[in-house]
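Run log, item B.
One chain of 539 residues. Sequence copied directly from the ordering sheet:
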Amino acid sequence: MSTRHTYAAAVITAAAVLTGAAGLVAGGTPPARAASGAVVLDEGAVDLTPRLVDGELQLQIDDRTTDTEVVREPSEVVWHVVPEAKSFVEGPLQGPLGSLMDAWYLNGWEADQIFALEPGWNGTEAGSDTEVTLIGFEGPGGFALYDWLEDDSYNDIPPDVHLASDPAANTSYTLGKGTEHAVPTWGFSTEGVYRLTLRASTTLADGTVSSDTETLAVAVGNVDPTAVLPGDGSTPTASPSPTGTITPTGSGPHVIEDGHLDLAARPVDGGLRFQIKEGTAYDYEWYEPDEVVLHVVPAAKKKITSDTAFLGAEGAPVWWLPLAQVSGILWPGWNTEEWEPSALDGKVTYQVDSLQGPGTMAVFSGGSLSGWDLWINSGDGLPDSFRHSVDAHSHSYWAFTQEGVYRTKFTVSATLADGTKVSDTATIAWVVGDDVDPSTVKPGAGDEATATPTAGASGSESPTGTASSSPSATPSGEPSASPAGATSAAPSSSRTPTTATGALASTGSGVLVPLSASVAALVVGGGAVWAVRRRKVHR
């Protein structure tokens, strides 16, 4: 085992204590049970532990997801890799997971940001080293168990793959007898039900070999884990919950919950029109804000970390829309591509006048060593505004702190080349989480009696910087600027863009900054022995 993959015993012990503490925080409530009686584990710390029981080796699960540790048999549990564990990967991951842009990860780079299972391995109960082999695999996609240190990623060192569904990759590794708590990454390429058949073997003091074979059932993504039989049982007949754009029947709103959209400022009839563009650069539709409901799906749920404490208490949930596209999750951007730079005097200003909803909303960029740039933050009062370059397209992070219905009132404004002030004001309805059926929500301003306006008005400006203009080559790790699409006729609307000669509302100085995506390019390497891995901090 190389020294770069070895940590001092004190560090290993501390990791175990911290992981145990995480289980206590998550604990207190008994795990859910499937109809078959199986225990469903979907959040908190567990260890796969080969241990000697009456002189024979048994592969068991030490469950620390509640405040009382319980030893369980793998054949009696179902692991659930929650939808929030889906993460974007920049560039293809060549190897056991195939070529993909996103997958589901436990103990991945975003592990500290999600409420998910934290599975580890404990080799101290077997008396000697244990050989763990993947002898059977069932699943709709690829699986890989690998270790990747933070320094490795900076030095272009590939991860050590310990087990994988790809026959060309490793199917066996050695779990050292001194490994108290190892936390490799578990990767699953496709939503569905997986069954991993593991054989653990060790040499006893008398020289004989003792082995145990267990099958672990894993439900990945939008699969009801309570409908999954544990062990090597049959999979449920129900398919995963559908994802993508929901088009309700009847006269309900157009619900968008997946894929790309832009909050666009468009030149229409000599003025400025604020509209929503859904789709790609060459395949899209235009909508008025009062025609749509934007759904921030449960899979967008993350955990507030010390890096994002401006959103609320560390460890509290937040519904987070990413900078880079993740399939199944809304990806809203900003778009001024239909304006020629010569048509405007300066930039386009986006302002959030007010917000109604159960929590706060923030729009921001950054996350590097220079910190975060908050463009909009209802938590310290509104209105907030920022300026966006003309003939440009960009993306930002969005965060909502509570589930429920939100309504954001936007005023988008600019100055024409002849000095005429133009603007448009409209309200966008959002549904965050799954407490409310988005198809039942009235778009636009709405009429919720329980809607709560944000307290106070700061009148402050949000930070600004430079937008990426379209089209252009984008460095790795940055979102690509979408080429400007062909102009299509705007749908009819009772809302009329305004032109005025008065001063603009609150505006910032400078221009909008192009955003750097914090994403990991994973590649596959070999390796058969691991120790504790150091989690890379996602920024």
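Observations after the first pass:
- The CA atoms of residues 465 and 512 lie 3 Å apart.
- DSSP finds two helices and 33 strands in the chain.
Flagged for discussion on Thursday.
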